[in-house]
Amino acid sequence: MTNADQSRTYASMYYHEGRLYVLEATVPAESLPQGLFQQSLSFIDAEGRRIRYRLYPDGSRERVPPPGGNFQ
Questions:
Q1: Taking the model in full, what pTM does it have?
Q2: Do 50 and 64 belong to one domain?
Q3: Which of 14, 53, 8 shows the shortest CA–CA distance to 35?
Q4: What are the residues facing 33 on neighbouring strands?
Q5: Residues 33 and 63 occupy one common structural domain
Q6: Which residue of 12, 14, 55, 58 has the fewest CB atoms within a 10 Å radius of its CB?
Q7: 8 and 31 together in one domain
Q8: By the 8 A CB rule, do 10 and 25 touch?
Q9: Residue numbers of the domain that contains 60
Q10: Is there a single domain that holds both residue 29 and residue 59?
Q11: Between 57 and 66, where is the model more confident?
Q12: Pick from 35, 9, 36, 39: which is nearest to 24 by CA?
């Protein structure tokens, strides 16, 4: 969204394991987009491994192992 002072605000919401996460970033009018901030969010499991899902058109999801690895 572009604000009255021409700064830009970006927001995204994620729902995971019963919790809602809201990310918001505002950058000055002449600044580069802040995409890296929102794209850097990751969820990890109890062992510290990144959680990844394959999403399907019907809204279901399946947990998948990280690239080149497995869940162990």
A1: 0.61
A2: yes
A3: 8
A4: none
A5: no
A6: 58
A7: yes
A8: yes
A9: 45-72
A10: no
A11: 57
A12: 9
